[in-house]
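Re: [help] complex structure
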Amino acid sequence: MEKKYWQSLEVYKEMKRNTVSDSEAMPEFSIDGLDESEIKGKSSRRDFLKMMGFSVGAVALVSSCQMPVRKAIPLLNRPKELIPGVPNYYASTFYDGDEYCSILVKTRESRPIKIEGNDRSPISKRGTTARVQASVLNLYDDERLKSPLINGKQTSWKIIDKEIKAKLEILKNDNKEVILMTSTIISPTTRKLLDEFVKAYPNVKWVQYDALPMSAMRKANETNFGKTVIPFYHFENADVMVGFNADFLGTWLMPVTFSKQFAKGRKLKDGQTKMSRLYQFETNMSLTGSNADYRYQIKPSEEAAVLLKLYNTLAKKTGNSVFAAPAINTNVNRVANDLLKSKGKSLVVSGTNDLQIQLIVNAINQLLGNYGTTIDLNTPVNLKQGMESDMMQAMSSIQSGKAGGILFYNVNPVYDCIHKDNLKKAIKKLPLKVSFATTPDETAQLCDYVCPDNNYLESWDDAEPAYGFFSFTQPTIRPIFNTRQFQDSLLTWMGTEQTFSDYLETNWKKNFFPKQEKYAGFDKFWFQCKQDGVFYVASQETSQPAFKPTRLKVAKPGNSGLELALYEKISMGTGKYANNPWLQEMPDPVSTATWDNYVTVSPAFAKAKGLEQEDVVTINDKLELPVLIQPGQTEGTLGIAIGYGRSHAGKVGNDVGKNVYGLINAGNGIKNLLGTVVTLKKTSKTYPLALTQTHHVMEGRPIVRETVLGSFVKNPASGNEEHEKFLKSEDFSLYPEPKFDAFQWGLSIDLNSCTGCSNCLISCQAENNVAVVGKEQVKRGRIMQWIRVDRYYSEMADDPEVFHMPVMCQQCDNAPCENVCPVAALSHSDEGLSQVTYNRCIGTRYCMNNCPYKVRRFNWYEYVNNNSFDYNMNSDLGKLVLNPDVTVRQRGVVEKCTFCVQRIQEKKLQAKAEDRELRDGDILTACQQSCPADAIQFGNLMDKKSEVSRTNDTGRMYHLLESLHTLPSLSYLTKVRNKEA
Amino acid sequence: MYNVKVRGVLIEGNKSYHDITQDVNGPLLSKTTPNWWWMAAFVASSMLIWGVWGFYNTVTVGTGTWGLNNSVSWGWAIINFVWWIGIGHAGTAFSIFLLVLHQKWRTSINRAAEAMTIFAVMAAGMFPLIHMGRVWDGFYAFPYPNTRGPLWTNFNSPLFWDVTAISTYLTASFLFWYVGMMPDFASIRDRTVSKIKKKIYGILSFGWLGSARGWLRFESAALLMGGLTAPLVVSVHSIVAMDFAAGIVPGWHSTIFPPFFVVGAIFSGFAMVLTLMIIVRKVYKYEEYVTRKHLDAIARVLTFVSLIMGVAYVTEIFIAWYSNSPYEMYVFFKSRAIGDYAFEFWAMIVCNAIIPQLFWFKKIRTNITMVFIISIFINIGMWFERFVIVVTSLSKTWLPSTWHNYSPTTTEVAIYVGTLGFFVLGILLFLRFLPMMAASELKGILKETSIVTENTKNHE
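Output below.
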């Protein structure tokens, strides 16, 4: 402290009084009691360490919150055919036991992501069905078994093989029967293998089992022609087609083939004025019935009588003898006249599994001379070989104890057999129960041994869907799990070292290679087979077998109450795909319902019984199901879809709907979907149904434009008068008309060809990574599918005409959506595409309001990696199906159809790399490519010679809601019905 | 003062200047907060908290928690947005329109009305934001210099006009309201004994001294801002109307919308002022400032506006028929009149066009309870109007296959209730901490009226 001197005592006193210590004067600046280090502002080593410890800890903590590093390691030696980003296609075959289709499998970076039709196949051509499209998702199903199981516990193939082989040997020595129950096998090589297996184990009895067999038709053909076959049909050769409860466009036998054939006869291209006519007599409103020119409602019990009446009418007019027939009201004169006018160019089919009915159908076709033109008995169809009698025999040998073991391949009788309760009880006692199921299904649950089969995309096989038409299955990915192909399991148990792929090759070398002359060496032939995926040997037989008439007799239809007509849904089929969310969420093309089965009743019946949509009723006092009021349902009948109510399908499909296999009409030992008499009682409960469309009439708006053939011939623009008006209207806009330099992409949909089968919808979903949202969200109107197949009824509720209209983004050149987006996330490309920039979209949803077509979809939730939406996008395995070329959309953005812009880009780049112009037809949109009816055309509207321009250049072309002057790039062609005005 | 005489007294109860100062500042200076205030604040906060839950739910889970669907993709959020914006019109309408029209009776109401505007517009502003779900992307809607191209907003989009109009309106109304309060802040600063209050109000008053120069600047600033804000009263709701009118949805695409919306906004704004002032004058014993004559005047305005509303409804329906467009006709004659939303439609007609006509009867017009009830009816009716416009139009547009109905979910209701809570809480805080009437302006009109009422006290 500074020294101070004082002069006087006064001053000293003053000084004394004023002297306060620094700390007293300014306490906040006092340094008393502080460390030296703090005063000097230096930190000690200890502090340094403390600080460092803290910061290192903090950094470590913060950085540990980051995403884990995932390494993508490039291949050291790249396989020749594997170029990252470039897809490979493999020809293969889809066959699931019910349905066949030749396909191309698109693989990206070695994983299959999309199925396309194989255009080299003479049978399925380029078409697919929704189920074929969706089958790729089954490969990535979390429910798939990951290794063989013994009593539900994972094991190795070695152990399971040893145990099964031992048991097979014991049973062989005990001479106990072993039943090998398979679905219909259409693979000639697998059949050969099965024969050999039976030779190796003579006690094995091979039974083919179909949930829905077509045994009556086989028997009828045996009676009439001496051949136990299903003939090949040629709908394309028929001018008049008459269907009796045969949904041949949707589910019956070979829907892809038949749709192709049907569409061929309905095309009105290049000035063609002839068109086939379809009559449909049916109980439920089926997809085929909805496409019929004339549709008649008949009860199941009336079908035989109507057919016989038709036969008698035809016989009378052709001077043949008639049979005694019960009286029936249905008027068949128009059908009869039409059929007679086109003798030899007509076709009558019935989908009812009833011998009497099939015999009458045969007789009618014989009378009309259709064998050899529209029906070919020399190229029999190999599908649906199962006979109920074989199954009954197997059942009795299980029950009697004659059998000691059972093997199930590709069948699930515990779910879909009418004897399932007996079967369940009986097989429990068997010492050997083996299932080859890919998922732990109802049947596999009861088996001691489960030897999981590969997915068909991991397998080798061949197929012969119809005589002489061969198609190959080849693996497109290594087995993902520790699974083994069924055939390989059999080979192992037979004690051979050979793999099935070698077996297949050997078989072809020995048995099929000699049948052709084109290729001298087998290797080349075999390579070509695998590349084409198909091989064809023409039938040598030219004349149809002789017809042996039988006496036709029909019982009088009783009016014994409510008749039930079970049916297959186009999405769900027999129930194999219950765990496939794409198919569960696919709206039924007629009812537009998703995720459920239900009782369809006619509007009049509902009114009489006081039933409303979604009311729960009990069938036979047991089964509770909701009601769906279905216009066009025959009075006095009910319809229920089979294929639902799985208990062990997986997390998606369990307990969706109700199992109604027990309601199959199994009188006479033949399984018939139609005709069971049931009771119905209303309950006080209701059950929500998720329909995608709740208003069913067009309210007089020019949406689907239609005409009849007669008017069309006179004036191709008939029914399209609104378009004329539009063309004459003043054309002005605030915005400049868009100009295009080279490309303006356009898509045209021929409403006359489109059957509404909804294949395009699933194809689009697979191509464009469209999310599944679940039943509740569908019910709330939030389905994500980019294509919507609108279905309208004409105003008559009890007997409506039906229209199907696929609607996706119309890619308007004057798009109402684009100019309302506040953040300019929507733009119009110089090729005419309306584009969404996902990462710019903030989700005001103004564009959705302003889109008159309502084709824009909003991501209401995060549909990816969200446990609330536990479908394929919430699983690492399921996500492998995603198309890497298409962005997966996040929550809160709007999405819509892009005209498959990734495909446009791919083909443009390809053309550029090959230094050539883009050719018309190079680019196929996903919906177009696999359309079984070829109803969709895509191409460049600037090129007047392109297919789409030529298609548009008819009087039938119009734009949806064209009066709004949105100038869509998507055009529709009017629907023409072949009926009297 | 001729006008004053004819119209009667503007401030009743023989007030002196000091009384006014006391009455206005008293509640702010008082140390105790009344119990009713706490009760009301508790209820409002609870509502707000529920709304915060709704917000949280929407932001974290998504707009999927709402009842919207791919056909009706605008719902309660937009309805409430327009409703609040409408209510938010009262402040400016009172301050500017009545100022321009020399309606001096506005003086005792305009401050509260302006506060109402601020909170209503803030409440409204939450909706477009939460409507998107991903609120963090909201800034995309503003045109700001950026490194993304630069990527600009779409100047063609009515939603962008909306963003501009509303942010402008909020800014302008806030400034107008705030500047108007500066002398009163200073008055509280000078009067309060609490140091904290002194500090806060001192800052808020921007060092207001009450000098002649200050008053001069103040007057011209108010005039300038009034002039600038006046067009906004018309523009904001016109632009909100454009959101609909510029769309092609049947029931939206209509040239009548901008004036129709502006009138509707004034209608709902005045009704809300009525609702609020009836409560406030009672609670704060401001019956002498907000007199029966005030209420009567507002009721008369409402009667007239209600007639305009009725004409607008009839015009809309006529034009729908006259257009001969099946789409328009379906919306008006089927969907609205007899369809799924007939109740909402008729509720709108009855509440907005019919019930306010009861004000023709003097007995009803002067019965405070009746006036209060009718004002509530108008508030509800105007909400239904927005519902009818947004939902009935969207639920049944061009293609019948896309028709889908809409009903709100708990989350949507929660957000709406939350904004109500926010609004009420805002008003409560305003009443507690800010001068709810402009003391200086009240004093201005007091002098004029005092001559006629022979209030001798002020002449001494």
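Residues 627 and 816 of chain A are 39 Å apart (CA to CA).
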